[in-house]
Amino acid sequence: MALPKEPRQKMINIMYLVLTAILALNVSSEILNAFKTIDEGFKNSNLSSQIHNETVLKSFQDSAIMAKFADKVAIWEPQAKKVKDLSDDAYAFIDMLKSDLKKESGQKVPNGEFKEDDLEASTRMFLNGKEGQTKGEQLYAMLTKYKANLAKIDSLEQKVSSFDFTTLPTSYNNDNAKVTAGMNPAQKWANGYFHMTPTVASLAILSKFQNDIRNSQTTLIDYCFAKVSSVSLPITDFGVIASANATVVMSGDEVEITAGLGGFNKDSKPIITIDGASVPIGPNGNGVYKMLASTPGEYTKHVVATFLNPNTNKQETKTADVKFKVGIPTGLNVSADATRFFYAGAPNGNPISISGAAGGAGSIQVTAVSGVTDVQKTGNGTYNVYCNALGTAVLKVTDGKSTTTVNIPVKKLPDPQSAYVFGTLDANSGQGGSIGFSEFKLQSGLKAVLPEDFVFKGIEYKVKSFIMQFSGKGFTGTESITVGSFGGASALLNRCAQGSQVLISDIVFVDGANIEHKLKSKISYNLK
Predict the structure, then answer these.
(1) Quick one: 140 and 81 in the same domain?
(2) Which of 198, 229, 260 is the last residue of a domain?
C-alpha cells in the first residue's frame, strides 16, 4: 500500500495501520467504533471522488471545449471513459465482497445487523478454501488485472506504472498473520489483511481498496482532460482582479464586488469565493458578488480564486482584498454597539445606539421593517433589538426631519463549547470516563457548556436530541436509540451492568430562536 501525497488520505491510511497493529488486543467497542469511523471516512472520500470524476467527464462535452478542441476531445474522452468503466467494475466487485462478508458474519436481510466483531468470518471467506478459489486470492487477482488493464489504455501506461494496489504495509508482521513458506504471493497478501481480522475492520480495509481505485481513476481522468484543455490559455501568470462598485456607500445601498482571474478567462475554470461564500461564474469567467451595506464602518472582503493552471497542470490559489467604507446620511447615526451584526435568539436583545437627531434623543423613533421581532428602548438613544431568524434585520429610524433605513446582518449564536451529562454529575465528571452503572442510571440528560468569552451572557441552549449507543455486558452487539433525555432510553438503561459501555453522539441543541446547533463531540462511559 503506497501512501498518497494528499494529506487527508495519508492520515486515513496511517490510522488504518495503527489500528491493524492493535488487533492482538481484545476487540473492544472502542476499536470497533474506530474502524467504523475510518470506514465512514473512506466512504465520504470515495463519494467526493466519484462526484469530481463525473463532473470532469461531463466537461469534455462543454460547448466551449468542443468548439476549440473537438479533435483533442475525440482522442482523450474515450480513454477517460475507459478508465471510468474499468474503475466502476473493480469498485462493484469489492461492493459484492462487502455484501458477502456481512452475510458470512450473520446478516440475514439486506442492511440487517451482523456480528461486527467476528474474528473468523474474514478468515473463512478470504483465506480458507482451495488454492486460487478464495475471495482473498480473487481480490488480489482483480486488483492486479485492474492495473494491467489501465496500463493498456493508449498513452496512460507511464501514469499507471506508479500505481500500487497489492503491496502490504511496511509495518506488516508475518508472524502475526501466520504466513507459511508454502503460500503463494496472493495468499500471503490476503493473510496480511484478513487473518483473524474483525468483520468491521475488514469492511474498512475493503473501503480502502475502493478508495485506491477512485484515487487512481481521478488521477487518470484529470490527466486526460488536461491533455484537451492545457493549451487553451497562453498565459504565463495569473492574478486576482477584484473591485467594488464604490469605495464609500451609504447604509442601505447595494455593494457590488466583481472578481476574477487576470484576463477573465473562463477556460481555467476558476472557483471564486468572497468571505467564504461561493460566487457564480459569468460567461466571461468573472464572478459578481452583491450585498447590502449595513452598519457604518470600514469593511474588507477577502477574495479567493482557485483554478487549474494550464502551464503547470496544477491547481493554484490566488487571493486579494477589497476594501470599502459604509457611511450614513448626514444627521442620524446608527451603531450596533456589541458587534457589527445581530444574533438571532440573543437572550437580552442586540444593543444599538442612535445619535445625530435634530430634535435630540427624544425625537428618535425606531420601527422594525423586517427580520425583527421587537425593539425595546433602554435609554436616551439606546435600544435593544430582538431577532429570531437568520438573514437581515431592517430598521427604519427617523427624528421627524430625516429618515434612514439600516440593514444589519443577523447571524447564528455560536455553538455550545461542548455538552455534559447532568443529574448527579457536574460539568467535569459529566464528560465521560468510568462511573458506577447504578449512578449512571440516575442521570437526567445533557446540558450545554456555554462558549467562553462570548459578547453576550446568559445564553440558554436546550437539548433537542442525541444518540445513545449501548454495548458490552447486557447487550448483543451495539444497540442505539435517539432520545431527548435519559428517560427515553430507560429500557436500555435498565439493562446496563458492570462492564457495559455507553457512547453519546450526534448531540443537537436549540437556542432561543429555535435554531439547531449540532455538536461533533462525543461522550463515552465505561460502567463499573
Answers:
(1) yes
(2) 229
